[in-house]
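Q: How would the structure tokens look for this protein?
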Amino acid sequence: MTPRKYSFLTTWKLRAPLTDVWNLLIDGEHWPEWWKGVEQVTTIRPGGPNRVGLTTDQVWKSALPYKLHMRIEIVKVDELTLIEVSSQGALQGVGIMRFSTSGDITQVQYTWDVETTEWWMNLLAPFLTGLFRWNHAYIMNAGARCLAQRLNAQLISTISS
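A: Here is the predicted structure in token form.
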């Protein structure tokens, strides 16, 4: 089966300090404590002082009845500005999280360019692409709500496409 390519764009806006948002998102090993849908994160290799090289095995579960198993490695970090990761496993590709502020609003924009490697996802993609996209939006919107709750912050908006 031919892998199916997906390009997702998610934008979160929160009334919260950039450093607080950054500190929670750079610390992916602890996402299962607050992000509904991130079931497990296991450290495979610690990263350097700026987290580059950190490699984790992750298990994600959303509204649909399947789990995604991925190995995620942080490949680039620009402090308080950008986190780039590579992904292997059920979803293979690159994710880039960009951070910015405007007044007291912190914006996180996440681009996720991946292809599916699971045979069943590739087989069903012509029929279920819309549902897979909805599922991605579901888990990302949950992440925004959970992040705002964890920070006791106001979630201004979350958009996933």
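The beta strands are 5-15, 38-45, 55-61, 67-78, 82-89, 91-102, 105-116, 154-160.

The chain has one domain: 5-160.

Upvote if useful.
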